Structure formats: structure tokens, C-alpha cells
Amino acid sequence: MVLFLLAWGIGELFYRVFSLDFDPFADIGYQYATNQYDRLKQYIKLNGPPDCIFAGNSLVQVGINPVNFETAFYEKSGKVLHCYNLGIDGSTMSSTVPIVMIGARMGRPSYLVIGVQAGQFLTKLDLDFCSTLTTE
Asked: Where do the domains of the chain lie?
């Protein structure tokens, strides 16, 4: 039991000290994700981990202002909340999920808001059917 706790403690220490120096997106060439990952690391260094992370595509990136949300949240609840916008240009659900998981692990937010659009849930069969419809 003592060895387990010692190994767990060393692993936790290693994770907390070295995990922010690694770029999980460097090898795949997804520059938007790398840029956002670097900005999140910088945010955490300057402000500490965010309480709330917004994630999704460019609609989230340009459509949600974290400062405005923090202000509205404070006015309604009286509680201070620090938010970060993790929206990425051209992101799909398959590319949003990995950065959300990494961002959530880095920041451990209390709130995680993922912006989605109805079209992200359509299958190829749905799209093929929709293309046959006319608006005449």
C-alpha cells in the first residue's frame, strides 16, 4: 500500500510539473489546435486554471466573449468565474473532442460548454437525402 501511494504521488508530481511542456498536436500539423493549446498554457501560467471552458468551432471562437460571460454570471449569481474560450477555426466534433479533453485535464474546469450545430449530427445518408429536396 505504501509503495502504491508513493508511486501515485511521484506520478502526480511528474504530471503536474512536466505535462504543460508537451504539445500533443505538434506531430499532426493541426496548427489551429497547437495555437490554442499554446494560448491555454499561457493563460494558465498567468491566471491559473479557468473555472469554465467554452469549446467548439469558429462560431464559439468569435461568438462567445468569456469576459462578458464572467460579468453576466457574476451579476446573476454573485460568484466569480474565470472562463477561457477554446474555440478553434474549422473544428469539427472529431477535432474538438481531443482538445477539450486535453484542455479539461490541464485546467480541470467546473464548467465545460461545447458549442455544436445541428449539421454536425447529420450522416452522409441524411446529407444525400437533403440534396434531393428542392425548394420550388
From this structure: 2-132
Per-residue pLDDT reduced to its tens digit, 31-83: 788 888 889 999 999 999 999 999 988 889 999 999 999 999 999 999 999 99
Q: What is the pLDDT of residues 87-121, one digit of tens each?
A: 988 877 777 888 888 888 887 899 988 888 777 67
Q: Is 122 helix (H, G, I), strand (E, B) or coil?
A: coil
- Can you tell me whether residue 19 is helix, strand or coil? helix
- Give the CA distances from residue 92 to residues 22, 69, 74, 116, in Å, rounded to whole numbers and listed in that order: 23, 24, 31, 9
> Which residues, other chains included, contact 59 with Cβ-Cβ below 8 Å and sequence gap of 6+?
87, 115, 117
Distances (CA, A) of 43 to 50, 68, 90: 8, 17, 22
